[in-house]
Design a protein that fits this description.
heterodimer, A: mainly beta, Immunoglobulin-like, about 0% helix, B: about 120 residues, mainly beta, four-stranded antiparallel β-sheet, 11 strands, globular
Chain lengths: ~110, ~120
Amino acid sequence: SQQGEEDPQALSIQEGENATMNCSYKTSINNLQWYRQNSGRGLVHLILIRSNEREKHSGRLRVTLDTSKKSSSLLITASRAADTASYFCASTGNQFYFGTGTSLTVIP
Amino acid sequence: GAVVSQHPSWVICKSGTSVKIECRSLDFQATTMFWYRQFPKQSLMLMATSNEGSKATYEQGVEKDKFLINHASLTLSTLTVTSAHPEDSSFYICSAREGGGMNEQFFGPGTRLTVL
């Protein structure tokens, strides 16, 4: 399969809490990217972390990358109801291969 | 960021007909375009990669005669689903990239295809 895997598959939290999603991938990468998708809509790029980086921040987002374990995590701090969406990681070599996604529900 | 559009945003067709979906990069030259399909509550699966002026490279298991891809210009790629059947109903998303593999891909908003 070309897909990596993400866990959890579904996550439900209260507004204000932090949400952590994990992603594992299969092949060597140039970079890893995280995307968000609202139901039935296209993808929105969130953040890119290069293979020689270990951690990156963007606003309420924090991404880590462990190339030895072929894994990445996305942390959303102080979650809001508007963060409710599906989140995908995508590992980039010559092509993109998406993870299976985490469905996040933030309860107001 | 750069903008990628898709047309149509949704289409309903009868079984056996062909459907063409367009993907355009609006403010940059897309040397490479990618086509994905997504079934409900599932992830995106890469179908094919196309470089401008070249034949598309299809992922394993994707029928190239059924999913015809044309990337005739640096701003336009088309995906034609030939002789569509209900099992082809899906969400089709394209993305476009300028230059090499380290560059960011920009995604279109997707096209919802329903085959009756």
